[in-house]
């Protein structure tokens, strides 16, 4: 039996004639770090190891320190045992939930087939960037995004929190940012922003699922929301008008403005204070109207401020021209640009995450004339997101510098939650498998068959998706 799991695990063995394990009536034994989350996810009561002898069926999670995200899952004879490090247990749980939810011929509803799985990720960074600046998406939608990410073994949620159209994160040192630019968005809608409390809730929700949140404040371009809320950032001293269009590349801060450096220090210090993770993303993309020297000065300033906060900087690929510190994480996105500066930075120790537009920009239209999305990087159908090898994508990069893959969804044209999930699915599942599974275990037709099985869960959970003809047929 081929199990329709996504991403495809490293090794799956289905013993002949093994009886499925019913979850109905099972008890759960789990270490404290994951117990509450696992009990909620599986809907099982917690028990002690000493109770196991009497339990007719049980799920037992046992933590083995130092195993990273690797896990094993064994189901049979009334027991489901998952072993791994703290994060490995979470990945094993994601697989267990898929096994429970899928309609499998050999297991009744709610039961898990007898199986032995041993699994672990190809890449350490498996991300999704969500732009909540062009159009705002709040806590309920982002929780549903995180749920989906957890289901498919993704582990980094990158939130694009600011852009020309709005400022989406409460920034205590500069309250006017959200008071003024929290109310604007592309197309003139009401906007919105995350309060510090809501943001902390999301970070906790993600952390429970083994997902790190990387917040981005995009500077020194893509900053009209700041120019609109903070007059002194403008050379004229007057607030810029709000921007509700979707052009890029026009706005920028100025390095010689005495208000600029204190502003950046304030906002990134505030951001660091609500970020338990290692990285702050400082942007750096598409500053089209700035000279090279001023741009490099900005990148130095930004990476210096991030260092002061004790974090490491993440930046869009073009920032590599400035020369980056060895702890930088570079997000390569534009396949048309010369990769030499990124290669040079990688040779100095920087790491690279791959976000090639023509593969994993999930705001690209599925096909010509599709009702959502743009197409500057091409049309991106499911197979485009799936059929590529990250290590062959930028061959000049030292392989050890490539730490992962990050899909991105920009929201210029994406307004509703259904729009968002229609663009994410099924391509996010493809990106997740690219990032997790070994290249030699991947095959598009096989993936498409598994997506058809997974779509039942999407329907049941109310996730909109694009019925790609490549997957579902014409
Ligand atoms: C490029 S990718 C951008 C974004 C746009 C996106 C639209 C990148 C770093 N910048 O500002 O939203 O294209 O696809």
TrEMBL record:
| All copies of domain Beta-hexosaminidase bacterial type N-terminal, residue ranges | 4-119
Catalyses which reaction(s): Hydrolysis of terminal non-reducing N-acetyl-D-hexosamine residues in N-acetyl-beta-D-hexosaminides
- The EC number of this protein is 3.2.1.52
Q: Please name the top-level EC class of this enzyme.
A: hydrolase
Classification via Gene3D superfamilies: Chitobiase/beta-hexosaminidase domain 2-like (3.30.379.10), Glycosidases (3.20.20.80)
The active site consists of 286 (proton donor)
Q: Which domain of life is it from?
A: Bacteria
* Gene Ontology CC annotations of this record: membrane
Domain Glycoside hydrolase family 20 catalytic, residue spans: 123-289, 297-438
**Which InterPro entries does the entry link to?**
Beta_hexosaminidase_sua/sub, GH, Glyco_hydro_20_cat, Hex-like_dom2, HEX_bac_N
Which one Pfam family would you cite for this protein? Answer: Glyco_hydro_20b
Q: Name one GO molecular function term.
A: beta-N-acetylhexosaminidase activity
Alphabetically ordered keywords of this record: Glycosidase, Hydrolase
Q: Name one GO biological process term.
A: carbohydrate metabolic process
Q: Which family does it belong to?
A: Belongs to the glycosyl hydrolase 20 family.
The entry's protein name is beta-N-acetylhexosaminidase
Native species: Ruania alba
């Amino acid at each position: 039996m081929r199990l329709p799991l996504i991403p495809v695990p490293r090794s799956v063995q289905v013993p002949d004639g093994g009886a499925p394990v019913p979850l109905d009536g099972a008890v759960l034994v789990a270490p404290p770090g994951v117990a509450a989350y696992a009990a909620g996810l599986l809907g099982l009561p917690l028990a002690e190891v000493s109770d196991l002898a009497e339990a007719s069926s049980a799920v037992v999670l046992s933590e083995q320190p130092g195993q990273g995200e690797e896990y094993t899952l064994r189901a049979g004879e009334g027991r489901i045992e998952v072993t791994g490090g703290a994060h490995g247990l979470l990945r094993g749980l994601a697989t267990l939930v898929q096994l429970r939810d899928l309609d499998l011929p050999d297991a009744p509803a709610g039961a898990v087939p007898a199986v032995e799985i041993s699994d672990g990720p190809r890449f350490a960074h498996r991300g999704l960037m969500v732009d909540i600046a062009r159009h705002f998406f709040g806590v309920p939608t982002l929780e549903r995004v995180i749920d989906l990410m957890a289901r498919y073994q993704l582990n980094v949620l990158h939130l694009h929190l600011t852009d020309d159209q709005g400022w989406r994160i409460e920034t205590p040192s500069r309250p006017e940012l959200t008071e003024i630019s929290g109310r604007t968005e592309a197309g003139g809608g009401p906007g919105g922003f995350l309060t510090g409390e809501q943001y902390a809730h999301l970070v906790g929700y993600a952390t429970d699922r083994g997902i790190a949140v990387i917040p981005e404040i995009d500077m020194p371009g893509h900053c009209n929301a700041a120019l609109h809320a903070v007059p002194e950032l403008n050379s004229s001293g007057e607030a810029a008008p709000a921007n509700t269009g979707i052009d890029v590349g026009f706005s920028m801060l100025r390095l010689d403005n005495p208000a600029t450096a204190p502003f950046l220090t304030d906002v990134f210090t505030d951001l660091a204070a609500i970020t338990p993770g290692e990285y702050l993303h400082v942007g750096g993309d598409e500053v089209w109207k700035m000279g090279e020297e001023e741009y490099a000065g900005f990148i130095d300033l930004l990476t210096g401020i991030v260092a002061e906060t004790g974090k490491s900087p993440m930046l869009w690929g073009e920032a590599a021209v400035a020369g980056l510190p060895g702890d930088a994480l570079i997000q390569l996105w534009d396949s048309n640009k010369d990769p030499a500066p990124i290669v040079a930075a990688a040779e100095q120790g920087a790491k690279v995450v791959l976000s090639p537009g023509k593969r994993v920009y999930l705001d690209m239209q599925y096909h010509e004339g599709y009702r959502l999305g743009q197409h500057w990087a091409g049309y991106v159908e499911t197979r485009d997101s799936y059929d590529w090898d990250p290590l062959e994508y930028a061959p000049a990069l030292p392989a050890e510098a490539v730490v992962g893959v990050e899909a991105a969804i920009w929201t210029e044209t994406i307004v509703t939650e259904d729009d968002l999930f229609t663009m994410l699915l099924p391509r996010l599942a493809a990106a997740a498998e690219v990032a997790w599974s070994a290249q030699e275990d991947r095959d598009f037709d096989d993936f498409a068959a598994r997506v058809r099985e997974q779509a039942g869960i999407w329907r049941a959970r109310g996730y909109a998706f694009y019925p790609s003809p490549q997957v579902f047929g014409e």
